[in-house]
Write a structure and sequence with these properties.
A: about 350 residues; mainly alpha; MetI-like fold; 2 domains; three-stranded antiparallel sheet; 3 strands; B: D-Maltodextrin-Binding Protein, domain 2; about 15% strand
């Protein structure tokens, strides 16, 4: 009798719990699952943005176009009279056929992405959507380099502000200023500093110390574009990294250091044997945060480079807005989603962050 | 629980309805306009005149991004959501074909009477399937701005061909730098990867006899010797007579260099004319405008630009939205904008108006440039003009930054366009 009663009560409570969960679940469906499903769905269609054009289902065609790669061998150009390979008189190298004649044009036009030599032959990698493949490359380089630099610098800063000195509280607050500036604003600020004439800070400085003539177009020359953006991101997000690491440092009990001191371990040893291992969980969290953030970078690229060079997210934007290809843009969104997912899993596996 | 939800819904509904009722006596209109140069101030001024004439109506001016592509992005988001938040849109001359489905037919709101006063070519451009989807507001054509004082100083003639321009620019640049102005450049223009580069590059190519990318018979014409030579020529300007940073410049960036007195020539739209003559500017009174130089075709070419006003179909007050569009594009406002901001009117009579000519002496002289401007291939390629233009400016930009040579860039462009548009390649 009593057992029956309690199970009734449990059931009643369970039902109540479900009822109470309904609002949260509804909100989750409306704001997360529905839009996500919508994006997945439209990535299989040729939907046009802000248009009444009929949408049709095209399967995996969007993904196929974005990710198609091919490698073709480039034949050397042959002189018709002598039957010999043509050698460029200026460079002394063999002249190869223009990739345009070698790469396939059906079902999509393949454009050359990269040429390389292997076993004395010349090959070309072609891609159906070079802009996307390049944006993938840009995003990955940006992410890896900026997160690496931010971690190293952030760790250094955190160690400094974790030590005892006068005005430490002040220092910790000041340190956060770059992070508090809105990204678009800081990107504009840096854009001014990167001005291609001596109005810009960097050109002025470099000209003063005699490095350049003061006319370097940092944001137009492809070799300077990524380093410039990485500089902006490192400046802006290092404080965030430092903050997370600082929180981790404060969790490490002081007794450990005292014990190490007694045992005669020097500072370097202390760092590698105590600080680093105990910092790992917070470092992992910080790394995950930053990496996932950097992978979907949009604002810095959009403000400073616009259509000159894309990140995946800004390419997504341009496919949607300028191209009005909602289907294609959705497919890019899904690819970004999957990529971020893979990175997250990787981190959890490698760094062993378990949900205990 | 269910009951609570119902009550909440009813209260919410009542609240919205009552808000609407109270809002009725006041009509609020929003016009989305540009903010290049003096645009925003002038639009606000015109909005105030409209408010004075129609008590109870308030007009808000929404300032939109400078770059046309960004502006289109913003508009598309409003239009996709069928938002009533914007009533009147300022639309580029290349958009009516693409966006027609979102706009009211202004013929149904009394545009019939005034349409004849405007340039016929623009009215036709804005007419889609017999519907007038936008009122012409101002027209634009690329012009060559030149420093008369510097031409005199170095005893040079006004250049009539691109070669002469190159030589004159080089002479002045060398001279000015030797005289101590290290930041001086010969020629500034719009070289960033955006719609503005399409306009500039079309001028080089068309003036050189290289066609208009896609011709009116829907054939792709871009890959030809003349076009390659024209793009190559511009590629050689970068770092030579134009700053390396020109590949990142839009209209306003070029104007900044020009108004600082650091350029001998500038390619820009007419709006920069009155701005440079404002009091306190170093170049005030020292410059003039002329048609752009000629290439192998023997004539200079100016790309047709300009903006129009369209009334949104999703407006809460379509009648008022159309009325505002018609007023803004009417003679009174066009005259105000012409005299104070040198925005070229689209109303023919205003080119004979004394006040307008006094403020902009070049309007009369360059009337032919405005009426003969070259249109971008937006009608031939609709609804894919934006993608066409993007492929085009990316290809040209790659040449300007030295990543590709002109020949292979245009060869690929031809194939890309064929892939996109499915049009044949012209012989």
């Amino acid at each position: 009798m009593s057992r029956n009663n309690s199970s009734d009560l449990a059931k009643e409570e369970q039902r109540l719990a479900y009822k109470l969960l309904i609002p949260a679940f509804l909100i989750l469906i409306i704001i997360a699952i529905y839009p996500l499903g919508q994006v997945f769905y439209s990535s299989f269609t040729d939907r046009e943005f802000a248009s009444s054009k009929e949408t049709s289902f095209i399967g995996l065609q969007n993904y196929d176009k974005l990710l198609s790669l091919t490698i073709k061998k480039l034949p050397a150009e042959i002189d018709e009279e002598t039957g010999q390979k043509i050698i460029n008189p200026d460079t002394g190298k063999v002249e190869y056929e223009n990739p345009i004649r070698v790469l396939p044009r059906k079902p999509y036009l393949y454009r050359p992405l990269q040429e390389f030599n292997l076993f004395g032959n010349r090959y070309v990698i072609g891609s159906a959507d070079t802009d996307f493949i390049k944006s993938l490359y840009n995003t990955l380089v940006f992410t890896i380099v900026s997160v690496l630099l931010e971690t190293i610098l952030g760790l250094g800063i955190a160690l400094v502000v974790n030590s005892e000195f006068k005005g430490r509280g002040m220092m910790r607050a000041v340190m956060l200023v770059p992070w508090a500036v809105i990204t678009v604003v800081s990107a504009r600020m840096w854009e001014w500093m990167f001005e291609p004439s001596r109005i810009g800070l960097f050109n002025m400085l470099f000209e003063k110390i005699g490095l350049t003539e003061g006319n370097t177009a940092f944001l137009s020359m492809s070799e300077y574009q990524l380093p410039s953006l990485i500089a902006v991101d490192v400046w802006k997000t290092t404080p965030f990294m430092a903050l997370l690491i600082l929180a981790g440092l404060q969790l490490i009990p002081n007794e450990l250091y005292e014990a190490a001191e007694v045992d005669g371990a020097n500072k370097v040893k202390q760092f590698f044997n105590i600080t680093l291992p105990l910092l790992k969980p917070s470092l992992a969290v910080a790394l995950i945060f930053r990496t996932l953030d950097a992978l979907r970078v949009f604002d810095v690229f959009q403000v400073m480079l616009a259509q000159k060079r894309y990140s995946m997210a800004s390419y997504n934007y341009f496919q949607l807005i300028s191209g009005r290809n909602m289907g294609m843009a959705s497919a890019i969104g899904v690819i970004i989603f999957i990529l971020i997912f893979v990175f997250a899993l990787l981190y959890i596996k490698v760094l062993g962050v378990e949900t205990e | 629980m269910k009951k609570g939800l119902t009550v909440l819904l009813v209260v919410g509904l009542l609240f919205t309805i009552s808000l609407n009722i109270f809002a009725q006596d006041d009509i609020e209109l929003t016009i989305a306009g540009g903010a290049v140069g003096e645009e925003l101030q002038l639009t606000q001024k015109a909005a105030e005149i409209f408010e004075e004439k129609h008590p109870g109506v308030s007009v808000e001016v929404l300032s939109t991004p400078d770059l046309a592509n960004d502006r289109l992005g913003l508009y598309l988001q409003f239009l996709e959501a069928e938002s009533p938040n914007v009533d009147v849109y300022q639309v580029d001359v290349i958009w009516p074909g693409d966006l027609a489905q979102h706009f009211l037919d202004l013929y149904e709101y009394g545009a019939e009477e005034v349409a004849d006063e405007h340039f016929q070519a623009i009215v036709e451009n804005n007419t889609v399937d017999g519907k007038l989807v936008a009122m012409p507001w101002f027209t634009d054509a690329g012009l060559l701005y030149y420093r008369q004082d510097l031409l005199d100083k170095y005893d040079l003639e006004l250049p009539e061909t691109w070669e002469e321009l190159e030589r004159a620019a080089k002479t002045i640049q060398t001279g000015e730098r030797a005289a101590g102005n290290q930041d001086f450049w010969g020629f500034v223009w719009q070289g960033n990867a955006y719609e503005g580069l399409t306009c500039d590059a079309l001028e080089w190519i068309h003036s050189n006899g290289g066609g208009t990318i896609v011709n009116s018979d829907k054939e792709i014409t871009i890959y030809n010797e003349k076009a390659v030579a024209a793009v190559e020529m511009a590629g050689n300007w970068v770092g030579h007579i134009s700053p390396p940073g020109v590949t990142g410049m839009a209209e306003e960036d070029a104007r900044k260099v020009w108004e600082a007195g650091n350029a001998a020539f500038m390619r820009n739209w007419p709006y920069a004319y009155s701005l440079g003559n404002q009091e306190g500017k170093v170049i005030a009174g020292k410059y003039d405008v002329a048609p752009l130089p000629a290439g192998d075709s023997g004539n200079g070419s100016a790309t047709l630009g300009g903006w129009n006003l369209a009334a949104s179909k999703y407006s809460d007050n379509p009648k008022w939205a159309a009325k505002l569009a018609l007023f803004m594009a009417g003679e009174e406002v066009q005259k105000l904008r012409a005299t104070e901001g040198s925005f070229n009117p689209t109303i023919k009579d205003l080119y004979e108006d004394e006040d307008v000519l006094k403020a902009n002496p070049f309007f009369g002289k360059l009337y032919d440039v405005f009426t003969n401007a070259v249109a971008r291939p937006s009608t031939q390629t609709a609804p894919q003009y934006n993608q066409t233009s993007e492929l085009f400016f990316q290809a040209v930009h790659n040449v300007l930054t030295g990543e590709e040579d002109a020949d292979s860039a245009l060869a690929y462009l031809e194939l890309d366009l064929q892939d996109l548009l499915d049009y044949p390649i012209a012989d």
